[in-house]
Design a protein that fits this description.
Shape of chain A: elongated
Strand order of the largest sheet of chain B: 5-6-1-7-8
Mean pLDDT of chain B: 87
Number of helices of chain A: 7
Distance between the termini of chain B: 50 Å
Shape of chain B: globular
Strand content of chain B: 15-25%
Structural class of chain B: alpha+beta
Mean pLDDT of chain A: 93
CATH superfamily of the largest domain in chain A: DNA Polymerase III, subunit A, domain 2
Oligomer: heterodimer
Low-confidence stretches of chain B: none
CATH class of the largest domain in chain A: Alpha Beta
Order of helices and strands of chain B: EHEEHHEHEEHHEHEHHHHHEHEEHEEH
Strand content of chain A: over 45%
Structural class of chain A: alpha+beta
Strand order of the largest sheet of chain A: 5-2-3-4-17-16-15-9-13
Number of helices of chain B: 15
Largest interface: A-B, 23 and 13 residues
Amino acid sequence: MNISLPQKVLAEHLQIVSRAIQQRSPIPVLEGILFSCDKQKLTLTSTNLEMAISTVCRVPHEEGGQVVLPGKITEIVRRLPQESVHLQTRGDGLLTEITGGQSEFELYGLSAADYPVMEPQQSASVPICSFSLAAEELRRALRQTLFATSQDEGKPAFTGVFFSLSGNKLTMAASDTFRLAVTHCVVQNAGGEGTFLVPSKTLQEAARIFTEDAVLQAKVYDNLFTLASENIRFTSRLLDEKYPDIERVIPQKFGGRAVLSASALLQALERASLLAEGTNNVVYLSLGDGLVVIRAASKYGKIQETLPLSLQGEGVEIALNVRFLLDMLRVAEGEECTLEFTSSSLPLIMKDSLYPDYLYLVLPIKK
Amino acid sequence: MRYILHVDMNAFFASCHQAENPAWQGKPLLVAGDPKKRHGIILTASYEARQYGVKTGIPVWQAKKLCPHGIFVPPDHGLYLSYAEKILEIMRSYTPLVEPFSIDEAWLDVTGSVRLFGPAPEIGRMLQRRIREEVKIPCSVGLAPNKFLAKMASERQKPNGFTIIMPADVEKILWPLPVEEMVGVGHKLAPALKEMGVETIGRLAAMPKPLLTARFGVIGEILLKLANGEDDSPVDPHALDTVKSVGHSVTLPRDLCDPEDIARVLLDLSERVGRRLRRGSYSARTVTLTVKDQNFVSTTRSRTLPGPTFLTETIYETALSIYRAHYEPWRKVRLLGVSVSNLQAREEGRQLALWGGSEEKLARLTEVADTLKDRFGDYILRRASLCGAESID
């Protein structure tokens, strides 16, 4: 391999792929980045076997080839002067010389033949379903759901975000069994229908790497999910778990509905959270006519705060984990927040006035 | 001058059972192992039973002869722990300076509490009354300017005694006592002292220091100080900061190796542990399994859960999975023990879960079962898998 390209371009690409590198892996090649150059195209790939990220950039035609370079390459290129960077393999095709400005590095590469690929299985290389959507839409939907996933590996299904494609409507849902976030996206070029479960850890990275305003092509295979923009490709393993029926737990009726300022509620709850303690972080909401009283107490003292609201139907007195409420309010974008409720032991539903399709359901704490 | 209280629970194990079962109050009750099951001595006898001459340490058959109508119950250490914890809680409402000495006695430094709660003797009586009324456990209280005298004082009168020893009382109360009654003088020191002609604490107090140090070294000097009613050791609330745990273990009536039998015993033990845990309003994160095999080789393994639990089922499943992971099925088991540690106060309120979270249902079921057992006794409800199984008690 013998290539030259601008430092800025290479550094950017390395920054993206380095997100999937595994630190201290028992498999040495996983600590590196695969450089693969063919027909004036340089492909960088990294994987931790949970997900893979690859980027493609054009390079002036020189000698092609493949090598796995240590993860340190990202930092090295980042610190080179903003000029052209030259990479050339020597001798056995593994030892790689990197030059930029007056600086010369020699890195011990590893054989690309040992690099694992995350590709759909041959038999299932036709996607089960596919669609395209704007990166911005995906980021918005992930922002609204990811936080509600569980970190508990003992409940594997809930560590993922549930996707369901029906027609051109993509539903995304996340839950840790104590709360449930459901949102929708309108997709284009939808092919096929189906449901799939993607680990939240890999999706977090997806939300970070597709920062530009690209249109993403999504494909779902038997065990993999891929997202591709013009020059970035993201592949994630799918979770092979059964996801429970989300429709069944969303109440169709409610006894009361309150509308109030989302930012005022956020600030009041942030204050209340200072005294909401323990694993339950309990705050009490008394939703009444024209007013909500927020209370919290701990061994250090107590807080009470009132906010105006407009109420339809019956009020309620309900105890909730304040962290669950804050999680949603922090991603809410509309001016107003709607609360729907029935009793102290039935779910509270929160809605963001800017996204009527977004629903967040929180189960209360029962005395 | 400091005000130190020493509180000593009277016949603590027996009192716990009597507090738990009001019907047993005022009756001779004996906490004992089952001789058929290879552990048969009296651990504690209630004061009612002591009138018949029953003493700690005598074999069960002898106790039965002395007190044939006595109520014999197996020991339940989880129960004692939960009572001890409740008592400590009451103590800590008067001062943070509480030093538990063992499960049934503790020192309190109430010097700084006088301004809040009134004179020290009043605090002592208040504490005694609250422990008797709120926890239903009798105790003897000693009040003195130091830990040694406080403990000597609480020993004076049992049960339900209240004794004050002030520096001026040392001569009158302490000195006439035989030297073996002195705290710190055991079956080794007492004969040695008597050999030197020291029969009473008063004689010890009058001994020349060089004579004592020559014979006993540093201990001699300490003994002399104590005999004179001097002790400046502080009440250390952290002196006994060991791992807090709730556990049950049982030496099986016969060695077991059938995994199903072992699972049943683990369930029984887990249920007892779970119930103690819940009664104390605790949840725990770590489950420990102790197994002693037929060769008396004892092994202990622990597992820490992702979150705290108070459910019998979770304790049981964890204990069973530890058993499966660490013990070869062919090893015959003589003793099994399940304990939980990493305790924390259980929170009020329960976070509800979606999809009828099985934990939520279990928690509700457990709550109902506990309420029934509290009202009608532990045998009102039995797990089907434990019915017909031989009892481990």
